[in-house]
Amino acid sequence: MNTPIIDIKDLSKYYGKARGIEHVDLQVDEGEIFGFIGPNGAGKSTTIRILMNLIFPTGGSAGIMGMDVIRESKKIKQHVGYVPSDANAYSSMDVFEFLSYCMHFYQPENGSRRITELSELFELDLHRKISDLSMGNRKKVSIVQSLLHNPKLLILDEPTTGLDPLMQANFFELLRSENRNGMTIFFSSHILSEVQMLCKRVAIIKEGKIIKLEDIDTLRKTQLRKVNIEFGDSNNAEKFSVPGIEQVIARIGNILSFMYSGEINELVAILATMKIANLTIEEPSLEEIFMHYYR
Amino acid sequence: MNRNLFFKEMRRNALGLAIWMIVITLLIAVTMSVYRTFLENQSKITGMLSLIPKGALQFKGISNFNDLLSVLGFYAANNVIYMMLLGSIYAIVLSSNILLKEEYSKTAEYLLTWPLTRTEIFLSKLAVLFINVLLLNLVTSLAGFICMEVVKTGPFSIKAFMILSLNTFLLNILFGTIGIFMSTLVRRPKPITTFSIGLVLILYFIYTLSKITESAANIGYLSPFKFVSIDAINPAYKLDCWHLLYFIGLSLVLTRLAYRFYKRKDIYT
Description:
The structure holds 2 protein chains of 2 kinds. Chain A is built from 11 helices and 14 strands. By secondary structure, chain A is of the alpha/beta class. Chain B has helices at residues 3-33, 35-40, 42-49, 54-59, 71-78, 80-98, 100-104, 108-111, 118-151, 158-185, 193-212, 241-263.
């Protein structure tokens, strides 16, 4: 069995008494595009910051490419590219100076050519001062610096913030292309649609704990169904209750909408005894599945 | 140490260093330019100085009015204060920001995620601090030396001048290590420049107070300024081994502690 490229075991981080992450277990295989999703404050950045050795865990361990993220941090970073969520580069430098500065730490072959190629792809003006750039352009600079040395693993923390839709599409296309060439991508975001577009597997983090680790397709094919019933009588909408209702989405007049994880036949059998004006049972969107886990 | 980081950091701090060099050099030049006038009016000035409390003169390293008649005594009493105080402010401002600015300007997200160890980062920044403080001291001491050569009316002890300069340099380095040590204790990424300058001024005030108030003489030992002897005109003036040990020892201890804290510090941006 191959060693996972990211191997997190029972990882915890507390900020004093405040919870950062708790007992996180996560493995990312080489060559995959892995989504890491959760709202702000869920623990995504804490996990990433431990992987990048910016902060130290309170408990557990984390490894990249079979190496410990604390003890062998320098070796790991030779093969990792990182895009931080806050793209504040050295504001006194111009773009070329910053990218050259970064490149000197890696000493890659054809580094200058790589700067030119990636800058052209992201339409970056190499001679503009970083302090004069918009947030989106700073993000592009950050993305370019992460790719200069052709890393084996790319860790992205909210990478699309500030990018316009066209640039986002280019960026995703580049990620797919780099992935086809063997790059593993760890993509952290709170925007489900972009994770859905790009990733094969996803971990959902809530209040510092991984609550779901699944293939995107499996997640979609969950047992969970969204049921919308229009009763003939509004009293029934108010009283209706069966085992398997996970979450009531709406109960307005004679209309009831809910997430259901029970047996469909049993539900239909109960409904058959009632006066129903309309009934729809549908597969929930990924957004709704996500929200379900978050309630 | 990492050369790429070291040279980039030297360039980033070059303008600040040049400004400090120019300001201190100008202050020295202006003060030394009045030395000849001072000699010409010595009888009036001696009369004026006799009205100043002895303690206040001692604090400036003047044990005898005649000390000021010597060019080195005049230099030590008037200029070393600039180099001690301003040099220390420069050193602590530079050092308290040299690591911390990467955090509050959020560039640590890059620097610490490039293939560098924290040891390399710490040593590169420490080398920048040491070299900047050394250059400031070399240039300002050289300026002082040239000024003395220009205005002197008789020979002065170069050995005493060198000891004086070395003491000032060691004091500046100590404040540099205090700054870097404090910055590694800061948890929230915010500049501590005001606090650092305040600390130097408070320690200088303590030193001043201990010099002019006999009952407060002992509190002077709380201040590193106390361990710099500026009585350069005294024939017994020499390099005090205990003072040397104090500066070097304390600087090394603070540097070691700062390194230890930085190695395990959670970096927030």
